């Protein structure tokens, strides 16, 4: 409980009830939701306390019972397709299909049954990955994206494949669609005669350029009469995504043609025309880093005509509503979430995955009154179920619009000031600041209740989450600021925003730190190598050598870096490893040893170079962790050691927490 009187103590030294244990268990990212035939929700439940295992869970029949685990604890519903996964399961007629993490085989499991049954061969290791699958009832088979790494792990073959469900025997998948580098969203129409899908090829990422295709099934289930619906015009830059068939058999999808924002479109079959359903300078979806994104769905109530329930993102906020696609109208719905990720429809209700500055990542069930007003909004699942007692310690974000180094141009960020119900700082002190550069770099900082942020702010740190140029959520033009400019625009924007807060008197300019994961780790290291804004940095599985990264990374991103950086000279000049002589500020590095996206030698290389130069540096390596930490104990240790490192080398205050520091080379 918060005390009635506040104790005066230096920023950074405050005692907080938001512990590293609490924050680490709350770091959960959902990777799939679906509705079963009885209308109940199924989702992938991430469990850091079980070593990062992904369980499949079903909504209980009543609110008084707990969600039901659907697969035994020895199974882990995760796919390694494109390394980032997603779309690991599907459900229909009481049959569950899922990818198992350890062997990456596809398993079939009857709800209420005993043990899952493998349908795909054992290749002697996790060499073939499956994702984004759907049931094809007409041919009694499962259609899925298949990534085959047997010939090459760096350049696997990606296809759309089928697995027969008739016999239940283990069988080799059959290729249905081949030829492009990547595929996603195979979707069969209600008549079961046609299928739509998304494909793209190097050097593009799916948000750069992609194509929406349609084909008809032959009598034996092959694809004939293929036609490209969107993305085939060389003069029209667009990236169609998320095709979905309406209950009446009309094809809808999202694309960013014309206005540079992902809006909902419909294919008018008899005219072979693509027409907008509702046009707005706002994003109705997000980049396809993972499989299984569900940004909209069809919804009806009381037998009325189907509408589209969807959300769009504008100026850093999500807005939910109902589109009448016959009238082209949008009816907003008022909900507690200000951030919406996925939407799936049930029977006269729908589910949302979302959050807000006061609500952590959660799933909510929504029922409407006359398709225009929210009648009931109830939480089905939350990454942190009971946080009400910590609310006096929560810091809420301030939207920051700041000038970039280009005249007349602005970028955006969220600033969380230090806040604690029990403590205050001396009047003449300004707080230290942690700046976070998000990953991707085609990603976005979102204003939601993140206990990692609150872990800092409740101890007296300011926290700045920057949406540098190149971030998503602001349209194609904003996203493409980073093309050929990675290591320049992101670095300049992070530094400019931090200095903007210093000029406003919000933070201490002598105690600025920066952190980031993956691409954000690269931005962190680049800021330390090429700027003098920050006094220390923490890189989590960040890129140090762009040339090495380009040569070693996985297939999805093998051309991505070239688009972001440029020519060989740019690669050399912007790689922090080639400018170690310019780094004089302390650095702490965290790395998963099973990371295939940013291999461990990236962190090891920069660590050895800084150690030899005499810069204070520390390296923490985790066995069994990939690109992003999933085990609660490792997440907790990372949180604690980041804070201890910054406090010792920049903050110059004693932490209230009892954390044993790791050894810092060239310092201890």
UniProtKB/TrEMBL annotation:
Q: Which Pfam families match?
A: Peptidase_S9
A single Gene Ontology MF term assigned here is: serine-type peptidase activity
One biological-process term from Gene Ontology? proteolysis
Q: Where is the Peptidase S9 prolyl oligopeptidase catalytic domain?
A: 451-651
Q: InterPro entries attached here?
A: AB_hydrolase_fold (IPR029058), Peptidase_S9_cat (IPR001375), Xaa-Pro_dipeptidyl-ppase/CocE (IPR050585)
Q: Write down the PANTHER family for this protein, in alphabetical order.
A: PEPTIDASE S9 PROLYL OLIGOPEPTIDASE (PTHR43056), PEPTIDASE S9 PROLYL OLIGOPEPTIDASE CATALYTIC DOMAIN-CONTAINING PROTEIN (PTHR43056:SF5)
Name listed for the protein in its UniProt record: Dipeptidyl peptidase family member 6
What organism does this protein naturally occur in?
Rhynchospora pubera
Question: Could you read off the lineage of the organism from its UniProt record?
Answer: Eukaryota, Viridiplantae, Streptophyta, Embryophyta, Tracheophyta
